[in-house]
Q: What sequence folds into this?
């Protein structure tokens, strides 16, 4: 989604031309879907990990250009919005056999190499949802990555907002209010994004299952309780990202009812084409560049889709033989605290989605969309202590719901064909985290409670825990 463009200033005719190409490609995708020409491959997983470059004191290090030049593999590593963030990409793999262990080995090898290269620049890498030491003043255009895509994105967001600054207003344990004159607030959020390729005929079930499961996933993986020294939500990335790009669609363009970063407007009913059609019809264009590609490459559709950040986002990709495929990106999980925690989160997610999507009675028929949405925001704010409603209509504490979901995750991993011993190993990490109540966010807040409000010291202790490789539930305060 971070593809580069060649211009950042646009004319009226650019928007007209791009809109025409987008409509043509959306119609073509619909035709392929109806004719059964989309890939039927399923159960292919992968991830993107966003990480922070930090200096010796643990402050953000705006050096991603030099860093990525040293790494030298643009397929595996790419810049993010800010010059102190980078993204690591995985290889897609079939979710069967020892897939989870191979996912862990790949990430470990990749992470070790990335850290070694960072150390050549007297820097290091940290995986955490929001870096505690980042300050508002650091999130400036001076620290924006040197890509036309990001310059254009900033200009178009401000154009659609008619020059109005972005307003940050997060009420949590404490209250944070701020005005920001650009989109760089988004750079304070880093995540562990999971992908799943799905069959077109069953894509609706998987998409809706992911929406329903977003609440338990964000609660168990929470790792972002702080922003600018304020204690906010258990997963503060959620309101921060939504407010950092606060523009919408329909009925007034930038201030319409649909938001570009959101939980979505509802369950999918018949196909995921509904989402792509909503994208084309209801969201103002942000990057109307001249691509010059054939319609079959779906370049305009994919670029426009990349500027709409649902927490569960359908994507179009291509198999090795060139056949277009559907996959869904699950964006609610923060980066960190450790590699084993990340892979355990992946195991829980893939198992739960497979099991829930395959139930005889569709999950979306058992839980209203507004309840799934309310569950999600309650879980992001209160974590394992959130009060949520589940499919059986029972209302209770999120931690208790997750206890009941663990056997479902085991069932789903069996259905995928994952090796039972490995599945049990990764899900045991989730079980122990749940038993202790110590998520990444709980550890960060607990450390500050015990040792005082020294964010740099807390981050140093966090990095020690991360380097130990022990899952966060085993970290000492």
A:
């Amino acid at each position: 989604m971070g593809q580069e463009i060649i211009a950042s200033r646009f004319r009226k005719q650019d928007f007209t031309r791009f809109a025409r190409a987008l409509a043509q490609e959306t119609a073509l995708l619909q035709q392929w879907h109806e004719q059964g020409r989309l890939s039927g491959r399923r159960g292919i997983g992968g991830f993107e990990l966003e990480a922070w470059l930090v200096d010796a004191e643990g402050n953000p290090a705006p050096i991603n250009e030099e860093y990525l030049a040293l790494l030298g593999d643009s397929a595996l590593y790419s810049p993010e919005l800010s010059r102190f963030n980078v993204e690591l990409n995985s290889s897609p793999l079939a979710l069967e056999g020892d897939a989870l262990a191979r996912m862990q080995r790949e990430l470990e090898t990749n992470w070790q190499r990335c850290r070694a290269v960072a150390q050549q620049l007297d820097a290091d890498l940290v995986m955490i949802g929001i870096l505690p030491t980042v300050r508002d003043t650091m999130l400036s255009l001076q620290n924006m990555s040197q890509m036309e895509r990001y310059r254009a994105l900033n200009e178009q967001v401000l154009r659609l907002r008619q020059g109005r600054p972005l307003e940050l207003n997060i009420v949590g344990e404490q209250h944070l209010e701020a005005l920001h004159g650009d989109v760089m607030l988004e750079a304070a959020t880093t995540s562990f994004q999971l992908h799943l390729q799905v069959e077109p005929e069953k894509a609706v079930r998987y998409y809706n299952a992911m929406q329903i499961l977003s609440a338990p996933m964000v609660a168990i993986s929470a790792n972002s309780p702080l922003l600018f020294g304020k204690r906010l939500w258990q997963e503060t990335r959620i309101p921060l990202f939504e407010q950092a790009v606060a523009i919408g669609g329909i009925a007034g363009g930038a201030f319409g009812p649909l938001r570009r970063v959101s939980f979505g407007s509802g369950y999918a009913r018949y196909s995921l084409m509904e989402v792509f059609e909503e994208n084309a019809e209801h969201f103002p264009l942000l990057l109307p560049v001249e691509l010059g590609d054939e319609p079959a490459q779906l370049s305009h559709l994919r670029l426009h889709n990349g500027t709409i950040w649902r927490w569960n986002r359908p994507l179009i990709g291509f198999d090795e033989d060139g056949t277009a495929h559907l996959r869904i990106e699950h964006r609610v999980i923060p980066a960190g605290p450790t590699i084993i925690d990340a892979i355990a989160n992946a195991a829980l997610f893939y198992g739960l989605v497979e099991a829930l999507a395959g139930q005889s009675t569709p999950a979306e028929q058992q839980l209203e969309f507004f309840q799934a949405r309310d569950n999600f925001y309650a879980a992001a704010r209160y974590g394992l202590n959130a009060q949520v409603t589940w499919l059986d209509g029972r209302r209770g504490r999120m931690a208790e719901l997750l206890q009941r979901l663990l056997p479902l995750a085991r069932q789903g991993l069996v259905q995928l064909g994952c090796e039972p011993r490995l599945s049990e190993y990764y899900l045991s990490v989730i079980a122990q985290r749940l038993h202790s109540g110590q998520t990444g966010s709980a550890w960060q807040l607990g450390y500050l409670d015990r040792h005082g409000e020294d964010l740099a010291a807390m981050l140093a202790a966090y990095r020690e825990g991360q380097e130990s490789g022990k899952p966060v539930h085993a970290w000492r305060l």
Observations:
- The longest strand covers residues 44-54.
- The chain has 14 helices and 18 strands.
- The chain has a mean pLDDT of 94.
